[in-house]
Amino acid sequence: MTSVRISARINGLEWSGDVEPRLLLSDFLRSKVGLTGTHVGCEHGVCGACTVQLDGEPVRACLMFAVQIDGHDVTTVEGLAAMTPGAEISVEQLHPVQQALHEAHGLQCGFCTPGILMTAEAFLRENPAPSRDEIREALSGHLCRCTGYHNIVEGVALAAERLAADGSAATPAADEEGHP
User: Fold this and answer.
1) Residue 66 has what DSSP assignment?
2) What span, in angstroms and rounded, lies between the C-alpha atoms of 113 and 155?
3) Directed axis angle between helix 150-166 and helix 113-126, to 10°?
4) How would you label 102-133 residue by residue, b for 16+ Cβ within 10 Å and e otherwise?
């Protein structure tokens, strides 16, 4: 099969290489880039475990081909924390949404957590002061078999409160071209 050359920014780092045209974005991120935080659950876009951000918007990586990210920015759960790629990370370096879910016990097995975090971070950028009902609606596309969702919602609410108190909102710093 013929491969296609693509270039993209993944978690703030430039990536270029050849990919098979039919390689799913989820498989590309896990096997070719080595970012295993993007989980593959249903492979039909229903469970939300594979959610990443494409140009700041949540997308299902199991429903996209890797070639579709050419020229775009992709953020995975590994890109939320303020850290050097490959370095050890501490709780203090976690993104505020990651910290809040951790503190609110909003995860158990953790399989669904990366996708939920990617949706929650984008949601809080759009709606920095959501009600709990709005949080539930925003996360309704994610399936979690362990938690019962209550602590996930509480974690996102806690993150919203903290981001509002900091005055930082959930907006990531923009680069020189204005991209998050």
Assistant:
1) G
2) 12
3) 40
4) eebebbeeebbbbbbbbbbbbbbbeebebeee
In which band, very low, low, confident or very high, does the pLDDT at 45 lie, cut at 50, 70 and 90? very high
Taking phi over 0 as left and psi of -120 to 50 as alpha, with beta for the rest, 43 belongs to left
Q: Are 21 and 65 in contact (CB under 8 A)?
A: yes
- SS3 call for 85: coil
- pLDDT recorded at residue 173: 38
**Are 157 and 130 spatial neighbours (Cβ–Cβ below 8 Å)?**
yes
Please state, for a pLDDT cut of 90, what percent of the chain lies above it: 81
- C-alpha count within 13 angstroms, C-beta hemisphere, residue 166: 13
Which tokens go with 63?
Answer: 């429903």
Closest of 86, 79, 45 to residue 62, by C-alpha: 45
* Residue 10 bridge partners (DSSP): 13, 74
Distances (CA, A) of 75 to 80, 151, 161: 7, 24, 23
Among residues 56, 53, 47, the alpha carbon closest in space to that of 25 is found at: 53
CB 94 within 8 A of CB 51: no
8-state DSSP, 24 = B
The length of the chain, given as a count of residues:
180
Tell whether pTM > 0.85.
yes
DSSP 157: H
Element (H, E) at 29: none
Instruction: Give me the residue label for tokens 């953020």.
Output: 75
